[in-house]
Amino acid sequence: MNHPDEAALARALTDVLGFELDEADRDRTAALAAASLIALAPFAEASCFDREPAQFLAILEAEADDWNPADE
Amino acid sequence: MSELLEGSLIDASAALDRGDVSAVELCRAALDRIEASRTTLGMVISLRADAALAQAEAIDRRRSTDEPLGALAGIPLMHKDMFYRRGEVTTCGSAIRREWRATTTATVVERLDGAGALDLGRLNMAEFAVGLTGHNVHYGDCRNPWTPAHITGGSSSGSGAVTAARCVFGALGSDTGGSIRLPATVNGVVGLKPTQTRVSRAGAMPLSPSLDCIGPLARRVADAARLYDVIAGADTRDPTSSHRTVPSAEAACRQGARAGLDGVRVGVARTYFEDDLDPEVAALLSAARRQLEALGADIVEIDTTDVAAFAQLQTLLMGGEASTLHFAWLRDRFGEYSPQVRARLLPGLAYPATAYRLAASLRPDLTRAFIDATFARCDVLHTATLALPAPTLDETRTADGPEMAAMIMRLGRCTRPVSYLGLPALTVPMGFTANGLPSGCQLVGRPFGEARLFQVAGAYEAATGFHRQRPPFAAPLEPSRARP
After folding, report:
1. For strand B190-193 and strand B213-218, is the pairing parallel, antiparallel, or unpaired?
2. What is the pLDDT of residues B45-56, one digit of tens each?
């Protein structure tokens, strides 16, 4: 994911959609997708193993601010 | 009547309680203002005049028999055209849903109905809530009541414009990467993106379920607080909604306005949020911090974790989810999307599943690290909401060109990382830039810390009073009765 292959992304897009975008649409979309994927570069060494996305909601609950003006 | 619509929701509610005005009179006055402004500002998609008047008559009848009434009894509101009401058309700002009728009613709409609010209609928005500017090729661009050449922000464009234009007291919006906060900022009103899971999304159009939040826009902090108090809390129809108790935001606001901010720690990030700020916005932000300090707050510098990647991770989450939701229409009804919205949805179809999953899997640890690094030292983080003065519609009319991605990143620079983290964020007016457009600051809190945000914003608003300035293109004070 450090160096996304724009041609491969464009092919994937065509496969998913089931039709060919015009060249400008296809190239722009692939470039935008590649730019977003480059954002993962700092996390290239990260593993999804033992990382559960649903823990996100548990962390929000665990880190809650319980300040209540009624308590003051 | 005009003074009531110029003022706050809280004051109008008190006037209704005293019998100084009836709900029907207030509703008619609001409808007159909407009619007088809708062409200039392009903020309305559909009006519910008869239905709202029927609601108002029912409220007046109940009041005359001393029946107990809700916290919003007789208050005129309008909402972004993505909140469903069974049997009524909800366009989502799109051509694809131009005639689609909802089969359910949104929980937030039911809660506002239950509190006695009047629902006057549905508002313009970015097509399918994809867009931060207020452009809409299907229903016309929404225009800013401060100067119609400038953007309203998006995607809750009509919600910001109709509230600033003093047509109604507030509106619901949705926020996936800044779509409440940016319209609030550039229209000079207050906007809250609640904590992820704080407000039910049942019956609201989805864009990206991991990120979507629903919240209020209003002219005054206490008005937004009252709207939030009504809509927040657990909902069996939205299984992700939190069961945590909701402290009164309105009480927190009053406490801040009355007692100031002694002992409250306001954080200023050393990096990212302070980088790349336009000098005018930076000056307004500095003045706001001096004001907070004068109110008793301690201003503390914060070393946040590296926030720069969060905006891109938000893009991956949103892109992956939104493109999946829209996949069938992109395949079968491609030509019915505007070029810009299509261009923003398509990249998500090219993301590998592994990339999307990694962006989701990193979220818990990154959020915990950010909270630990930031909120160990402060109670709220203070940033700009928009890093630059509000641009014009023409300056941001990028369609699907290569500059589109850069423009989206620039407009959402301060809001999108907060969406990835799921934290609550409240934007409140902090002054005006040289182009005459409002600018706002963003208060970010710990999860479920909305009350703290309202406390700080309530104190700040009471000391500054930017809400008293009237947009030049707000509704006329005494509009002629255009309706039959």
Report:
1. antiparallel
2. 999 999 999 999
